[in-house]
Amino acid sequence: MQQLIKSNDQLKIFIANELKNTENELISGRLVEVVAAYLVRLSGIRANLKGYNYLVKVITYGVIDPNLLHPLSKGAYISASDVFGVKVSCLERNIRLAIDSAYYNSPEQLRSIFAYPGDKPYVSEYIAVAVDLIRQEILKRKLTI
How far is it, in rounded angstroms, from Cα 82 to Cα 86? Predict the structure, then answer.
């Protein structure tokens, strides 16, 4: 539990520092992507994996437009696969492998971010919680995405 509080505090501090530099109430997609990348790294996913970049992009799309999350395979996955020039199945597989890798290397680190009590989280759960965490922090500061 203590680790969960520490990790969430790290995320909140990072977001606060990044948002401090914004002069207006409109958040750019690039800033959302920076925060998403930090959250993905904080959860233990290594940046050298293809799934890392795919996951950051999907989370970014989810924060900017939550309607793309339902269903993932028809919304955010298609948008991200177009950007990277890969098939949706390839994108989904690499994201799943990145989350699996993080879980098997350090399950406690992944659990500390998402407070997920069971086995490794499903991809959709990981993305939904990540999007929710980022959106909550942005909305607390009364900013617009």
Answer: 7
Position of tokens 């914004």?
Answer: 22
Residue 70 lies in a domain: yes
What is the per-residue pLDDT across 76-128, written as a single tens digit (0 to 9) for each?
999 999 999 999 999 999 999 999 999 999 888 887 777 766 778 888 889 99
For residues 17 and 58, give the distance between their C-alpha atoms in angstroms, rounded to a whole number: 23
Number of domains in the chain: 1
Reported as a single tens digit per residue, the pLDDT across 3-30 is 444 556 766 676 666 666 555 545 667 7
CA nearest neighbour of 139 among 12, 1, 4:
12
The boundaries of the domain holding residue 129 are 2-140
Note whether 32 and 127 are within 8 A (CB): no
Residues paired with residue 26 on neighbouring β-strands, in sequence order: 144
Kindly list the distances between the CA atom of residue 94 and the CA atoms of 5, 10, 17, 20, 68, in Å, as whole numbers in the listed order.
29, 26, 31, 33, 19
Nearest C-alpha neighbor of 62 from the set 143, 125, 122, 10: 125
